[in-house]
Amino acid sequence: MFRGLAADRDELPGLLEHVQAHAAALLKAVGEREVVPPPPSPLPAPAALPAGGAGARAALEEFARRWEPRLSSSAGPRYLGFVTGGVTPAALVGDWLTGAWDQNSNSSLDGAGQELERETLGWLRELFGLSVEHHGTFVSGATMSNTVGLAVAREWLGERLGVSPAEDGTGPLGRVRVLSGSPHSSVAKALSMLGLGRRALVRVPLLPGREAVDPAALEAALREADGPCVVVANAGTVNTVDFDDLKAIAALRERYGFWLHVDAAFGAFAALSPEHAHLVAGLDLADSLCVDLHKWLNVPYDSAVQFTRRRDLQAAVFQNSAAYLGPLGDTPDTVHLTPENSHRLRALAAWFTLYAYGRDGHREIVERCVACARALGEAIEELPGLRLLAPVRLNVVCFTLAGDPTADRLAELAGRLSREVFVTPTVYDGVPALRAAFSNWRTTDADVRRIVTALRDAPR
């Protein structure tokens, strides 16, 4: 055995204690670090690869010296970009054990990991109020979740025509229409990967002053469509967390026979709050569904789930035939359900946080984040020079400059704020804006007060 490996193996208990102390100190201070540190100027040259290796302790020291000062505090309470959750203590325990056990949870030939994943999916299905007809799998994020859901939808389109795109390609489908009001960018990306093409996406008019689709306009688009369609509904849009009327859309499905995919990447968590659960009424009517867990469940990147009622079609798309793998069967192994042949035990971090804090603990996180977003929205309405662009419906605050809101001026403002709070740029209804997304379990009203002070003091 290479001498460095042997030395680290023999020292492993002490090494892990050293890393534990390092990580604990980092997380203790994460709320006070600069949220996005400025990059060094000039950037340091890349280090040379050590020929003989330096050992794990030396690697940690080098990482702490050269890279940690440049990393953002995305695990902290004032990183409000991209709907980024943190990592609950229990989820961190689960993630560390995921690395320690190093399971490839894809085959029933070594099936404990798959069984743990199925148990976790059952808890999530209950959490979001889905029916037992919804079967799920873990994937890397919302983009892959949307891709898997739309791949199943593509197979359903073929079923209507008596062909299988998984076997025959997409040619027999002809022109496919995917209708949506405010689709996330990952939907177009998925259509590109699936061979349906970005031009298959047809944007349907929205309700006035909203990001939610107009059901009457959607019905008109369905009437005009030639052949089966896919409808991508939103349960929580990026800019303003607006929600399509899922029940009304599902009622249209009874007349027009389309596949209903719901992108509920973070909006699905509204189901945890009695005050907001009405926003996702009808979520269980989806044919396929996307939920991102490294957002509001506060598990480490990368982690998401997808659900569908047609696991048979899902297996038709993703089945993997090899002598060393388990058979397809009535309960397909995970290897037959996603693009991945290798599949880390992502479920373990989710299992830990769900078991540790339950429905009530995660409901409290959701409701506290919503309260923080409302408080920031109310403060922005009172701050001179700023303007709220949309009601704070859930956990995102979309705002802009009261005068001359150019993209450059907003980027400058975001840059001035970045050491205290990180927000991301957007455009809403043609107006350049900033958005603050609350989804971190650490965030409290004290952080909102600090953000308001930073906004008040920032030159503009």
Describe the protein's topology.
Elements: H1 3-10, H2 12-29, H3 56-66, H4 89-101, H5 112-127, E1 135-139, H6 142-161, H7 165-168, E2 178-180, H8 185-193, E3 201-203, H9 215-224, E4 230-234, H10 246-256, E5 259-263, E6 288-292, H11 293-296, E7 304-308, H12 311-318, H13 347-382, E8 386-388, E9 396-401, H14 407-417, E10 424-428, E11 431-437, H15 445-457
Helix pairs in contact: 4-13, 5-13, 6-8, 6-12, 9-10, 13-15
Question: What are the key terms here?
Answer:
alpha/beta, 11 strands, 460 residues, globular, Aspartate Aminotransferase, domain 2, Aspartate Aminotransferase, domain 1, 7-stranded mixed β-sheet, 4-stranded antiparallel β-sheet
Please provide a written account of the structure.
There is one protein chain. With 460 residues, the protein is an alpha/beta fold. It folds into two domains: 19-90 and 358-460, Aspartate Aminotransferase, domain 1 (Alpha-Beta Complex), CATH 3.90.1150; 104-343, Type I PLP-dependent aspartate aminotransferase-like (Major domain) (Aspartate Aminotransferase, domain 2, 3-Layer(aba) Sandwich), CATH 3.40.640. It is built from 15 helices and eleven strands. It has a seven-stranded mixed β-sheet with strand order 1-7-6-5-4-2-3, with helices on both faces. The protein has a four-stranded antiparallel β-sheet with strand order 8-9-11-10. Helix 10 links the parallel strand 4 and strand 5. Helix 6 crosses helix 12. The longest helix has 36 residues, at 347-382. The N and C termini lie far apart (61 Å). The mean pLDDT is 96.
